[in-house]
Amino acid sequence: QVQVVESGGGLVQAGGSLRLSCTASGLTFDDYAMGWFRQAPGKEREGVSCITSNGGSAYYRDSVTGRFTIFRDNAKNTLYLQINSLKPEDTAMYFCAAGSNCVHSYATGTRYWGQGTQVTVSS
Fold it and tell me: How confident is the model at residue 117 (pLDDT cuts 50, 70, 90)?
């Protein structure tokens, strides 16, 4: 049984930092591109960042470039998202997903999803 579990969210002040983690089990982690998505209340889910299966390439949406860093440790079956210089508009539920490829900041062909971790940024 595949499990994908995110952690690391919280309430932070604008300008602060967080590191999100996503640990997967029950799958061959390094077979999958991994992506971070977020969804704010009343808005559609958007792809934040994606990293290829071997970690060789990473992609970001424009609004987070330079502030967010995605990386993975395949030996630990874990995906990370380092978030710096947080802004109130980053407030959302953050999800990770295992997919087949990255297309810009989106993991595509997503097969497995976590339940999400909430990030709230106060101004």
Answer: very high
Would you give the DSSP letter of residue 29?
Answer: G
Place of tokens 């967080």: 18
Write the pLDDT tens digit of every residue in 10-21. Answer: 999 999 999 999
What tens digit of pLDDT does each residue of 57-75 get?
999 999 999 999 999 999 9
Tokens encoding 110: 């997503």
- The b/e string for 34-70 (b: 16+ C-beta within 10 A; e otherwise) is bbbbbeeeeeeebbbbbbbbeeeebbbbeebeeebbb
Strands (E), 1-123: 3-7, 10-13, 18-25, 33-39, 46-51, 58-60, 68-73, 78-83, 92-99, 101-103, 106-108, 112-113, 117-122
CA 116 vs. chain centroid, Å, equals 9
Distance CA 77, CA 55 (A): 12
CA distances from 70 to 41, 52, 122 (A): 23, 10, 23
Q: Which amino acid is at 42?
A: G
